[in-house]
Design brief:
The complex is a heterotrimer of chains A (330), B (263) and C (528). Chain A is of the alpha+beta class and 330 residues long. Chain A is 34% helix and 16% strand. Chain B contains 13 helices and two strands; from the N terminus they run ααααααααααββααα. Among the domains of chain B are: 45-125, Cytochrome c-like domain (Cytochrome Bc1 Complex, Chain D, domain 2); 133-222, Cytochrome c-like domain (Cytochrome Bc1 Complex, Chain D, domain 2, Orthogonal Bundle). Chain B has helices at residues 2-5, 13-32, 45-59, 61-64, 81-90, 112-125, 133-136, 139-142, 145-155, 157-160, 183-192, 207-222, 236-259; strands spanning 167-168, 174-175. Among the domains of chain C are: 30-296, Cytochrome Bc1 Complex, Chain C, CATH 1.20.810.10; 444-526, no CATH class. In chain C, 64% of the residues lie in helices and 6% in strands. In chain C, the strands form four sheets. In chain C, strands 1-4 form a two-stranded antiparallel ribbon. In chain C, α3 runs antiparallel to α5, α7 runs antiparallel to α8 (184-192) and α14 runs antiparallel to α16 (404-443). The longest helix of chain C has 40 residues, at 404-443. The chains are: A alpha+beta (330), B mainly alpha (263), C mainly alpha (528). Chains in contact: A-B, A-C, B-C. Chains A and C meet through α3, β3 and α6 of A and α5, α7, α8, β4 and α10 of C. β3 of chain A pairs antiparallel with β4 of chain C, so a sheet runs across the interface.
Chain lengths: 330, 263, 528
């Protein structure tokens, strides 16, 4: 313990402290054995991996505390691989730490900035050879070079045009037409109003034409949610009220925010919740947004019944379904 | 017959006949009006309804009204059916312990006989869905796990999560985990639409489709985690936490060891 | 000469006669690398990248990047007979019918998680120690590029199996593209080959994920490492370490053993995670269809902050002249992240603008000695943590019995309030630490030994610091703030006045520090 106050200048590299293995051959031998054991454990791990891969059946399960029932082959293969890799690393590092020289070495840094002479040479070379190219003097070459290179940059952009079709009216149209029957998803059963109780909800799609198959592209716009309330619970304009049928109201299931399926219906509050970003829509008020980032209510599908008593659409959606886009006018 | 007629003027003939007749009427009546409840007590239905009414008056009427007509804090129970009562009281949700946004599953306050009695009482108030014990018995035989999974993902996963672990609703409400639900409770929940859950009537999800959903949920309850510890089956959030805490933590720990001078 | 040396000799001769390698190998085999655990964070990222390449190639041997419909008939019975894409079907096949398939899938995904975590940790280390200063600005920009591309690569990677969770993420990405003004719907149709979901997207992102981005990564990582090699690694300050030297261990044998060994460690830990922790269990999610969704849908953690921003955005859309601009998507999805990453990438230049320091720096800063920078870092981290928390608001709500509406509002307000608060607190903390360093140097360490003086006073004995310790605490530079007057000596208004005033303000804030002790201060104390 020194009573002197420290000097506030660089004292230089501290004195090297020797490790046990540096001075004591027995300690060095011990360290060597430890490294060897680590490498051997790794070998055992590889053997476990190969054994599990070949001889453990894929349908066996083993109970591990805390983790529960685990697939035996997956677990032992994984642990075997872990041990085989980890212990090579542990061995190599232990070897470096205990046996390889750990004297700190000093190397010089050189400033990156080149010598003035070199810089001057560089500038002179560039000027000279640049002038040799003639680019500076021959402005016709310069300008036409610029034109040709610039134009050629357009070629790859143009070549990508066939990546996809133009959207045209695709974003604004769905399969729903006047008279299209609503059918349950996925069983494709048509629905009578009496099938749906108050407080009930059903996921529907448009009825398929004979021979037609469901496609994800169509479903991504056609999915509709049917909800039944008591008619007196609606707070709708007369026009929107005419789009409902005996308390049954239909909305597009595709969130107007970013297109997730809005399907969480809270029976008591009559709110629809989208699980992606928590936009909340109030069903009695035509799916008006009451919380969350969605900016528009869910489009309502006008429904009625056909002459056989099944629920059908009165007409197509009066606005585009799903997330917004530049060309959307409202 | 001749041997029996020798006793027709026996002094016990009358009472025996009376007891026999009562027994026949009672058994025929209870068999004919069985409310699909296996192994119920021998109590006749009216006795169950009475007991149920007593339990109701003591434990439920303070919120639900003396005649189950409902009130400011609790809805009417007229027409909800035995299924609703069996679900709510059988899972311990009712009686509600505290007046939060949602009733929570907890240890039931009543034993199965009392629950049956309550159900019988509420069922007696007005027609409603009955306890579906008979319907669910053969879910293993009649349900399809794969179809059930598809139906589950269309109708249930948006609230209950892809593996039935539960999910958030608005304002503190939630769809609970399904990992403890029995087949009967699942069926009852679908037909009665408890609390925030919508009703899924038999024309919307047919009884056989309901069995498939039940079969899938049971399979999900029993499926071991196939890739290792599952951390709740709620998706990337827990995976990211584990990666940072265990993965990066272990690696930084080893890096510190690596750079420390050996003794 | 042993036979081993003979063989090595002839190999070396063969190579040297064709490349002249002996000279530069000799120089580079003895290259010095400083040794500190915090310098291994970048290595974790590098080795994770290699693991991703190795396990990724394995997966490509069985993965079918096609969206054509197939009916599943593999070993996982709960999906038997279900219609799904070939991509999802082949991923199930890898998971259940290929031995080691699930293990490789999981190692691949855990390696991706660790890759991104290590990049962020490494970036924070570089930021807080000021390692991005000249001459390493360009390397910093490459690093931010790697971070951004890594986020995209990870997103595309976990979207390849076409499951319900990742498909929902693609839907959201499509909505962001579609929301872009003027070109949005066209870009979306070009990216997806038509309307969403189409059948072109998975095959296209497969090419990007497996060929294009890994190629760019290899190039960027090579440039990143070459710069570190050529410019030499930075080092922490301490006795014997100056701006003009590097103190450490030579590449051969120490660094080779330690770094090589660490590769196996990273691989081993990743394999361990792949063995015991389930990740991305796509069989539970089900195949993607736009009519289904799960509660609690989140992206992987490195995109959680984007999800959180989108969730808390106010519902603002403008409709004018028959056109719609969705600010509720553009601001959180493109504008705020764009600003964040741009400021992050340009930070070395912003700081050198504030300090006007044009010299090379090879000694790292102790974070407390750069209080403004450290506080800015805390600001950024807090911003990220609040948005990340909001990204998981529905899981927080179910787990802790809270309301998602309240959590969203708390995060909205928190995003505006907490980062500046973190800035202020961190800056004060750093200045406090500087003060405590000053006390240590001037008065020494407290020993806990009390001495009773003759006149009755108790004093605690302080032990002076060693020369090495004192040097470490005082070697840092404390630059004065820039002096930029709005007017020059004659009172003439200097052009660019506002910019200069801003620069002076920033420079003053940046230079705020507790003066480090000078030798004169020590002398004064000695004579107490």
């Amino acid at each position: 313990m020194s009573d002197k106050a420290p000097r506030l200048s660089d004292p230089g590299l501290p004195e090297h402290v020797h490790r046990k293995a540096d001075t004591d051959p027995a300690a060095a031998k011990k360290a060597e054995r430890q490294v060897a054991i680590l490498f051997l454990i790794s070998a055992l791990g590889t053997i476990l991996f190969i054994y599990s891969y070949i001889w453990i059946r894929t349908d066996r399960f083993v109970y591990i505390p805390v983790m529960g029932s685990q697939n035996e082959q997956q677990l032992y293969m994984g642990l075997g691989l872990t041990v085989s890799l980890l212990f090579i690393g542990l061995g190599a590092i232990h070897w470096a730490k205990t046996l390889m020289p750990d004297n700190e070495v000093v190397a010089e840094r050189h400033e990156f900035r080149s010598e003035e002479a070199d810089r001057a040479d560089f500038v002179a070379t560039v000027k000279e050879q640049g002038a040799a190219s003639g680019l500076g003097r021959r402005s016709l070459i310069k300008r036409t070079l610029g034109l040709s290179l610039g134009l050629i940059g357009l070629a790859p952009l143009v070549a990508l045009r066939d990546l996809g079709p133009l959207p045209k009216k695709s974003l604004e149209e769905t399969s729903w037409k006047a008279g299209t029957r609503l059918v349950v998803d996925p069983s494709n059963r048509p629905i009578k109003p009496s099938d749906l109780e108050v407080g009930g909800v059903v996921q529907v799609l448009p009825e398929l034409a004979p021979g037609e198959e469901r496609t994800l592209n169509n479903n991504a716009k056609d999915a509709v949610l049917l909800i039944r309330l008591r008619p007196e619970e609606f707070e709708l304009s007369p026009e929107r009220l005419s789009w409902t049928y005996q308390g049954i109201i239909a909305f597009s299931k595709i969130c107007t925010h970013m297109g997730c399926a809005v399907a969480l219906y809270e029976q008591q509050t009559k709110h629809l919740l989208c699980p992606c970003h928590q936009s909340t829509f109030d069903v009695p008020r035509a799916a008006k947004v009451i919380f969350g980032p969605a900016a528009r209510p869910l489009p309502q599908l006008a429904i009625t019944v056909d002459n056989e008593g099944y629920l059908v659409a009165q007409k197509p959606f009066t606005e585009a379904v799903g997330p917004s886009f530049w060309e959307r006018s409202s | 017959m001749k041997r029996l007629s020798r006793y027709r003027r026996h002094r016990f003939a009358g009472p025996t006949l009376l007891v026999f007749a009562l027994f026949m009427i009672g058994t025929t009546f209870s068999v004919a009006s069985a409310t699909t409840r296996l192994g119920t007590s021998v109590m006749s239905r009216t006795a169950a309804v009475d007991e149920g009414r007593q339990i109701f008056l003591k434990g439920c009427s303070s919120c639900h009204g003396l005649n189950a007509e409902g009130g400011k804090v609790a809805p009417s129970l007229i027409g909800v059916g035995a299924a609703a009562v069996d679900f709510q009281v059988g899972t311990g949700r009712m009686p509600m312990a505290d007046m939060g946004v949602q009733a929570i599953r907890k240890k039931p306050a009543y034993n199965p006989d009392e629950v049956a009695a309550l159900s019988a009482y509420v069922a007696s108030l007005a027609p409603g869905p009955g306890i579906p014990d008979q319907q669910v018995i053969y879910y293993e035989r009649d349900g399809s796990t794969a179809q059930g999974g598809d139906l589950f993902r269309t109708n249930c996963a948006m609230c209950h999560n892809f593996a039935g672990q539960g999910g958030a609703l608005t304002r503190g409400k939630f769809a609970p985990t399904l990992m403890k639900a029995t087949p009967t409770q699942i069926y009852e929940a679908m037909i009665t639409g408890p609390q925030s859950m919508p009703k899924f009537g038999d024309k919307i999800i047919t009884p056989s489709e309901k069995l498939s959903i039940i079969k899938w949920i049971k399979a999900a309850q029993n499926e071991p985690s196939l890739g290792g510890a599952s951390m709740g089956r709620v998706g990337p959030v827990t995976e990211g936490l584990l990666g940072w805490i265990l993965g990066l933590g272990l690696l930084i720990g080893i890096a510190v060891w690596l750079a420390t001078k050996a003794r | 000469m042993s036979s081993g040396e003979k063989v090595a000799g002839s190999v070396a001769n063969y190579v040297d006669e064709r490349t002249g390698a002996a000279k530069w190998l000799k120089k580079n085999l003895t290259k010095v690398f400083p040794d500190h655990w915090s310098f291994m964070l970048g290595e974790i990222a590098l080795y994770s990248f290699i693991i991703l390449l190795l396990t990724g190639v394995f997966l490509t041997f069985w993965f079918d990047p096609s969206q054509r419909d197939v009916i599943y008939h593999g070993s996982y019975l709960p999906l038997n007979g279900i219609k799904m894409s070939a991509a999802y079907d082949s991923t199930l096949h890898i998971s259940f019918d290929i031995r080691g398939g699930l293990l490789m899938r999981q190692i691949h995904h855990w390696a991706a998680i660790l890759f991104m975590a290590a990049i962020v940790a490494h970036m924070l280390r570089v930021f807080f120690t000021g390692a991005f200063r000249k001459p390493r600005e360009f390397n910093w920009i490459i690093g931010i590029g790697l971070l951004t591309l890594g986020i995209v690569e990870g997103f595309l990677g976990y979207s390849l199996p076409d499951d319900l969770l990742s498909g929902t993420g693609i839907r959201i990405a499509e909505a962001i593209i579609q929301a872009m003004p003027i070109v949005g719907s066209y870009l979306s149709f070009f990216a997806f080959g038509g309307p969403f979901p189409g059948t072109a997207f998975i095959p296209r992102i497969f090419t990007v994920h497996v060929l294009l981005l890994p190629g760019i990564f290899l190039a960027l990582i090579t440039a990143h490492l070459m710069l570190v090699w050529y410019q030499k690694h930075t080092q922490y300050p301490g006795p014997g370490r100056t701006e003009k030297n590097v103190v450490g261990y030579p590449l051969m044998p120490v660094y080779m053993a330690k770094a090589g060994g660490f590769f196996f460690i990273v691989f081993g830990v990743t394999a361990f995670l792949g063995a015991v922790a389930s990740i991305n269990p796509i069989w539970l999610y089900g195949p993607y269809t736009p009519t289904q969704i799960s509660a609690g849908s989140q992206p992987d953690w490195y995109m959680g902050w984007l999800d959180g921003l989108v969730r808390m955005a106010p519902p603002i859309e403008t409709h004018a002249f028959h056109h719609t601009i969705s600010w509720n998507i553009l601001i959180p999805g493109l504008i705020v992240p764009g600003i964040f990453f741009t400021v992050l990438a340009l930070y070395p230049f912003i700081e050198s603008w504030m300090t006007n320091d044009k010299r090379e720096h090879h000694l790292l800063d102790r974070p407390r000695n750069a209080p403004n920078r450290t506080a800015l870092g805390a600001f950024g981290i807090t911003f990220m943590l609040v948005t990340l928390a909001n990204g998981g608001n529905d899981l927080i709500a179910t787990h802790f019995s809270l309301s998602i509406n309240q959590i969203t509002w708390m995060c909205r307000i928190g995003l505006l309030v907490l980062p500046p608060l973190a800035f202020a607190v961190t800056k004060r903390l750093c200045l406090s630490l500087q003060r405590s360093d000053r006390e240590l140097v001037l008065h020494g360490k407290e020993t806990g030994r009390l001495v009773l003086l003759p006149h009755g006073e108790f004093v605690e004995v302080h032990e002076p610091l060693s020369d090495a310790e004192a040097w470490t605490l005082t070697q840092h530079e404390q630059l004065p703030p820039l002096e930029l007057e709005a007017t020059d000596v004659h009172g003439v208004r200097r052009p660019g006045g506002l910019r200069n005033r801003l620069r002076a303000r920033a420079s003053r804030a940046n230079a705020e520090a507790i003066a480090k002790p000078k030798p004169d201060d020590l002398k004064e104390i000695e004579h107490h």
